[in-house]
């Protein structure tokens, strides 16, 4: 037996290890299973190239709880270690690795979640164990070794009588870590970190129906059928799927496989994903994965199931911020890359060149997929538009590269359920909706019901009205106006339709100068000037007599304020609601008001007309609404 000190230069790193990742103690299991997996895959490689003359077989990793003995066992059938190798890899390499890791990060431990995800390795066992044993037998023809360390820098190394190839790690669980002797806790960890690891992991056994047994059905004399019970057999309880969908070739997967994998990833998710994007690159970095577009409503903040980040099938985190462009963090799925540096802080990650490349690759890939979905089945794409537009519009706003690519598939739906790309829209509208200054005016509504009468007026002129109802649409419009040439967006209730798209034609007013003056004065007396700017317009006589509008510019600034951005425009948020009141001087009602004899009756007509205009904008509420209804009853009496 050998006794020795792991490293004399350090008094005792074990208490440090234990304290270091106070919240992340659970990762010890992932580290040990990763080592077991590495050892198994190394053996696979050696046998495949003929360097290990042993039978690889169907190795698995077993995790076993010994409640009485207060021990946790992790057993693999990998390449094992000789006594010399234990000395070298455990006492020297792994130890100095752990030491270096601690040295580097002990001060920044609180920095961010990703530190400590990887790097502490074998010695993370001491976060939960007061004593650790390694019993290992190399695939080489050498005796097995037994290493023990009780948490001081002292270790013992002796021969063991283990005969099967592989390594068994025995953790003597410390008093304060007995949670790791509970079956449910271990199961939870295995499912969190090891659900898709490449070597089968056994945790206990389970009873299943014997596949070789067919229960017999017999009939009694009355013809009643009875089937004998199925024969049960005990099998290993394998908790992981060693071959998850993302590790396969897209050509080998069907639509059901992708959907099935989605539910495997998110067992609590009952809704089907809309579509998926299979990522697969090996140059200039390695990355595989599958991203899913879930059904998304208008809410930017709902995001329960997140994208999971893996490194060689080992779960790392579900915080992919910095790796995936922000607008795509609304998606779900898996990204697996050995090239993402994991044991560094977030700020470093964001500046890392490889990570930037990964992020722009993902953006490009998503754009390409959207384009091909659009090209291959436009009808289906249109049907899904409402559920995906928020991601696409957000992407167009935040990533210029994506904005450019999105021209090919971003859709602009009309109130009548037609969908145009920008180019189609432009060609369709340019003849009828170009104003006298040569600017194309694109009309839109944010609410088909609330702005119904304005939509009707626009349609009566043969104009198309888009339905743009995302919460971020005002930002997007701003971006489109500044990128596309000679185009402006106008919400249908921004002004009277004649003013929204100004053409050269002018209508002559029926009123002479005196009548105009009289009308103006009357309106000034009745209409509250702090709420409405009165605007007299000579329009078609059958156009609505009173119309309330809110100028596009002011409304949009307010909206942009509400959804963030639009820096330095605070003044608009706090400005009172101001509306325009467009009065059609050619309408019959206006003539009638002017011809009405008593002042009192005139005022009543104006108030009533104003209220009707407010009503159609949803602006009549409370006491004013009550008064309006009372007045209306009196008028029809
Ligand atoms: P890393 O896995 O990053 O190399 P670890 O501290 O986790 O660092 O492990 C140190 C070394 O100990 C490994 O590189 C390997 O050589 C050896 N080792 C650990 N666990 C096993 C195991 N189950 N089977 C064989 N070798 C192992
Ligand atoms: Mg390791």
Automatic annotation (TrEMBL):
Annotated Basic and acidic residues bias: 217-229
Concerning Pfam families, the annotation shows: HATPase_c_3, HSP90
The protein's name: Chaperone protein HtpG
Q: Which residues bind ATP?
A: 31, 35, 76, 81, 96-97, 167, 346
Q: SUPFAM superfamilies annotated for this entry? A: ATPase domain of HSP90 chaperone/DNA topoisomerase II/histidine kinase, Ribosomal protein S5 domain 2-like
Which residue stretches belong to region Disordered? 210-229
* Species in which this protein is naturally found: Flaviramulus basaltis
Q: Where are the transmembrane segments?
A: none
Similarity comment:
Belongs to the heat shock protein 90 family.
CDD domains, per this entry? HATPase_Hsp90-like
Kindly give the InterPro entries that the UniProt entry links to this protein: HATPase_C_sf (IPR036890), Heat_shock_protein_90_CS (IPR019805), HSP90_C (IPR037196), Hsp90_fam (IPR001404), Hsp90_N (IPR020575), Ribosomal_Su5_D2-typ_SF (IPR020568)
Q: Which keywords belong to this entry?
A: ATP-binding, Chaperone, Cytoplasm, Nucleotide-binding, Stress response
What Gene3D superfamilies is this protein classified in? 3.30.230.80, 3.40.50.11260, Heat shock protein 90, C-terminal domain (1.20.120.790), Histidine kinase-like ATPase, C-terminal domain (3.30.565.10)
Looking at the record's lineage, which domain of life comes first?
A: Bacteria
| GO molecular-function terms, A-Z | ATP binding; ATP hydrolysis activity; ATP-dependent protein folding chaperone; unfolded protein binding
